[in-house]
Amino acid sequence: MNKITKLIQLLFLAAVFTNNVTAQTPVSHPNLKWEKEEAHSDEFETLDTQKWENDPNDWGVWSWEPSLAYVENNELKIKMIQETHRRNTNYGQNEELYYKSGIIRNNQTITYGYFEAKIKGADRFPGVSPAFWLYSINQPDPTEDGQAKYSEIDVVELTQKEWDFDKNEWEGPEAIDMNLHAVARENGQLVQIRPHGKPEIAQNKWYADFDPREDYHTYGVLSRADSIFWYVDGIERGRKENLYWHLPMHITVSMGLRNPFVKYVDGVRYPVADSTTTEGFPTEMACQYVRVWKAVPQIQATESDYENVEFGKNKGLTFNSYFDAGSGFRSTSEMEVDLVEKNASGETVKVAATSQAVIKGKAAGQTSVFFNLQGVALSSDLEAGHYYEINARFTSSKENETVELTPIKNILVVDEVTSLGKGLGSNIEIYPNPALESIKIKGLQKTTPVTILNIAGEVMMEKNIDPKETIDVSKWVNGVYLAKVSHNGVVVTKRFVKL
């Protein structure tokens, strides 16, 4: 093989790799439209110190050491060591400290988007906390109530070993913390917003069925203008209203010191000299990647639920969709949804029916509209080549952009749908509803394809279900789910609630 041939092959492989990286999507929302933020993302072939700061100013009761953040075998490693040293702290000058750790912090800031990392926790427990998080730096004092001076989103903090007041015992390594912190102006004063002080605003905790020290898992957060959502391995594990987290923040990967090496006295954190040990140190966490995306303004719907599907004039047509105004933006209009008659050339003949989804001022979410088909002509009565399609649109605050649904064609309007339950039993029902631990699907007459989605459109389960089969939902986050039961091209959709 000559050098030119080798060069061509290398260039081809590089192009394939580049396309694969560009095509990456979040584990939890693969079907939405995203734009990759390369300036905030890294596959960690090397430690790019033009992108990442690894020697920021020290804080807390340990010190940052640049050499303890490094790349090895295409992984970011953050190490903590026991090393007694002295430096100035917030509680005194030339104080003795006992541990050093690594950190990387992105040099650029970002506020909204989807943030994901694949991490394996450190083996030392208790005592250290691997973390993937975002925080603001040096923001001005707010001038109005409700504004923040400091914003911090903890995508994940592992193995913190906090006290479980409900069980009256210490937590194990399976406790996953996904919290918020802020300093905000309320009643003219700056106040602390912390997880334990305001849990309804700032605290999320999830108990995993795995040990995060033993293997890699993906941890993600979706920060929108209205809400913040947390994900572990693509499944939602927490959500909060976005009240104070609108500042530009730096993406950070680090490992901090925790109990028993830290204590609090009157709200000030101090090292615990008597607990200092080399046992379990050095210890390190591993991070395979950090990836960041921004959502593109969009309307998404499941085409197969409508295209070439019959809808009876006796029951009408319910159209379900998901909209996103784009990361950091909101809809400035309601969503207009039309059932349109088109001719063979794809030109509009007339709007046969119209409806509206109330989304003005919202950032993203599920929508549902209903078309009364009583005054709509049957598809069989249309002129040759004519057909119905569904159109939808709204306006995003992102540059006043008009956002449109890719038209869904060949909607079939009939007098009465008689085949909807054929082969599926006379009635498809989910029970119990609401559900706590498990559900069954009543009305199945044979093994049938079933897909269950959460309210954000994420697939929670997709498999063939036997008529007597029990579906375990005990580990799913509480909320509304959609079960889609398919048979002979007909889809029956049922909602149920997980408590």
Word description of this protein:
The protein is mainly beta and 499 residues long. The chain has 3 domains: 265 residues, Sandwich (Jelly Rolls), CATH 2.60.120.200; 117 residues, Immunoglobulin-like (Sandwich); 70 residues, Immunoglobulin-like (Sandwich). It contains 2 helices and 39 strands. Strands 1, 3, 4, 5, 6, 8, 17, 18, 19 and 23 form a 10-stranded mixed beta sheet that branches. Strand 11 and strand 12 form a beta hairpin. The longest helix is centred in the first third of the chain and has 21 residues. It is elongated and about 85 Å long.
Based on the model shown, name its key terms:
499 residues; mainly beta; Immunoglobulin-like; 10-stranded mixed sheet; 9-stranded antiparallel sheet; disordered N terminus
The Rg value, from CA coordinates, equals 27 Å
| Tally of strands | 39
- Which spans have pLDDT < 50 for at least 5 consecutive residues? 3-22, 419-426
Large-scale geometry: elongated
Just give the CATH class of the largest domain: Mainly Beta
Q: What's the N-to-C terminus distance? A: 63 Å
Q: How would you state the average pLDDT, rounded?
A: 91
As for the number of domains, it is 3
**Sheet/helix structural class:** mainly beta
What is the strand content?
A: over 45%
The CATH topology label of the largest domain is: Jelly Rolls
Given the structure, what is the number of helices? 2
CATH architecture field of the largest domain:
Sandwich
Describe the largest sheet. 10 strands, mixed
In which range does the helix fraction lie? Answer: under 10%
